[in-house]
UniProtKB/TrEMBL annotation:
<dbReference type="InterPro" id="IPR025736">
    <property type="entry name" value="PucR_C-HTH_dom"/>
</dbReference>
<dbReference type="Pfam" id="PF14361">
    <property type="entry name" value="RsbRD_N"/>
</dbReference>
<feature type="domain" description="CdaR GGDEF-like">
    <location>
        <begin position="196"/>
        <end position="303"/>
    </location>
</feature>
<comment type="similarity">
    <text>Belongs to the CdaR family.</text>
</comment>
<dbReference type="Pfam" id="PF17853">
    <property type="entry name" value="GGDEF_2"/>
</dbReference>
<feature type="domain" description="RsbT co-antagonist protein RsbRD N-terminal">
    <location>
        <begin position="31"/>
        <end position="172"/>
    </location>
</feature>
<feature type="domain" description="PucR C-terminal helix-turn-helix">
    <location>
        <begin position="361"/>
        <end position="414"/>
    </location>
</feature>
<dbReference type="InterPro" id="IPR025751">
    <property type="entry name" value="RsbRD_N_dom"/>
</dbReference>
<dbReference type="InterPro" id="IPR041522">
    <property type="entry name" value="CdaR_GGDEF"/>
</dbReference>
<protein>
    <recommendedName>
        <fullName>PucR family transcriptional regulator</fullName>
    </recommendedName>
</protein>
<dbReference type="Pfam" id="PF13556">
    <property type="entry name" value="HTH_30"/>
</dbReference>
<dbReference type="InterPro" id="IPR051448">
    <property type="entry name" value="CdaR-like_regulators"/>
</dbReference>
<dbReference type="InterPro" id="IPR042070">
    <property type="entry name" value="PucR_C-HTH_sf"/>
</dbReference>
């Protein structure tokens, strides 16, 4: 039987010659193989197919790897004498710079391996040799391909990890310098900012701060925060890649361009942050252009301060400046001692711990919220109206000659949780 690759009489025993023949046949089809493999990987792995430049680099990496494998098959070269192709190394580094996870790169190599094995077996079928020889050829092809993929994956994995750490740190450091200039109010051309950071100031900005409340390995936690911020940018419909800068080992600042922070977006943010235990976020409100860039960052900083200092917010993973209470708490906590003194003056004996004081605060808060209607207050609290009247009388009597200002009492009750007590007694206003 004669085939396109030769006859059975010509190829009966020397597997190395058959491997070389298979390699030559594959090499002749190189452009076709590379295109098909590129299209397969770009379509099957989302992280690899969204950027034309990455697709072009993917093609170059595929061509370099396939050419090397064919070279090994044709010449029986040992892996120890090989150097990784420049295209494969550069592609791994570029994926790290684009924050494409290592898992995507690994999957690409395994999908490419499967496709190359299928092509190699197809060529082995065309050799026109006995089944026994054909099995030997296929076994050797598989052995070469598996060993090469294992070898190259170790190399590009190391490149990806090293570049990810270097790029992330370098990018964050460079961003920090130019960002601080803008936050300080230094004069800086918008085009200059774009060229340095890849982020334009001529848009709407949403300022975000993210930090970790738990100890973790620095690089791993930094990358975790970075990845979360990028997911959050998508959740609020940011129109471009976020601007991120590192503040310390467990804190990062970010700006999301063109973001919208409606109730649905905030809910998505809360859901995403909940998937990363120990990480918390503070959000500003959207602001426009350079002033908006500064102001939304200031608002995020205020929200973070409240998240760290207020018992009301200390257990929340997401704190937004859009919450009306946040700005109020921040204003009051600028002089927390004076504010706490004022609250105690207004609430008198009932500005303290204990069940009796808590019940009184709940009753008075409900009473003034119901416009001093004892019947509605009783219905809300599930007690008799006479009980409400007795409690309110005791509270007003405790105030003494100073008298009761309903507005002051309502405000004092509202901020009591945030400024005075640390324990559960303060969580009922």
């Amino acid at each position: 039987m004669t085939t396109a690759s030769g006859s059975a009489e010509e190829h009966t025993g020397d597997v190395s010659e058959l491997l070389a023949l298979v390699a030559r046949q594959l090499d002749l089809r190189m452009p076709e193989i590379v295109r098909e493999m590129r299209d397969l990987l770009a379509s099957r792995i989302d992280d690899l197919g969204g950027d034309p430049q990455l697709v072009e680099m993917l093609q170059a990496s595929i061509e370099g790897n396939v050419t090397t494998i064919c070279h090994i098959l044709a010449n029986g070269i040992d892996l120890e004498s090989l150097q990784p192709t420049t295209a494969a190394v550069e592609y791994a580094a570029r994926l790290a710079q684009r924050d494409v996870p290592l898992a995507a790169l690994t999957r690409a190599y395994y999908l490419g391996q499967s496709m190359f094995l299928r092509l190699g077996m197809d060529e082995a079928e065309r050799l026109g040799v006995s089944d026994r020889v054909k099995i030997d050829v296929v076994r050797d092809i598989a052995d070469v391909v598996h060993r090469y993929i294992d070898w190259i994956l170790q190399l590009v994995t190391g490149v990806h990890e090293q570049e990810r750490r270097r790029w992330w740190t370098t990018r964050a450091t460079l961003n920090a310098s130019i960002i601080l200039k803008v936050l300080r109010g230094d004069s800086l051309p918008i085009r200059g900012f774009v060229s340095e950071t890849g982020y334009t100031l001529a848009q709407t900005h949403l300022g975000v701060m993210a930090w970790s409340d738990v100890d973790a390995e620095d690089a791993a936690r930094q990358h975790e925060i970075d990845h979360l911020l990028r997911r959050l940018a998508t959740a609020v419909h940011s129109s471009a890649a976020p601007l991120i800068t590192v503040v310390d080992r467990s804190t990062a600042w970010a700006w999301f361009g063109g973001a919208r922070l409606d109730a649905g977006a905030l809910a998505r943010v809360e859901d995403l942050v909940a998937t990363v235990p120990g990480v918390r976020t503070a959000l500003g409100e959207p602001g426009h252009d350079v002033e908006g860039f500064r102001r939304t960052h200031e608002q995020a900083a205020i929200a973070r301060l409240v998240a760290l200092s207020s018992p009301r917010y200390r257990d929340r993973a997401v704190v937004s400046y859009a919450d009306p209470q946040v700005a109020l708490v921040q204003l009051l906590t600028k002089d927390a001692t004076a504010t706490a003194t004022w609250v105690r003056e207004v609430l008198g004996d009932y500005a303290g711990a204990g069940e009796q004081a808590r019940v009184m605060r709940d009753t008075v808060a409900a009473y003034y919220a119901a416009d001093k209607n004892a019947v509605r207050t009783a219905e809300q609290l599930g007690v008799h109206r006479n009980t409400v009247r007795q409690r309110v009388d005791r509270f007003e009597a405790s105030v003494g000659a100073r008298g009761v200002d309903p507005l002051q009492v309502a405000l004092a009750l509202r901020i009591y949780d945030d400024l005075l007590l640390e324990g559960a007694d303060a969580r009922h206003t």
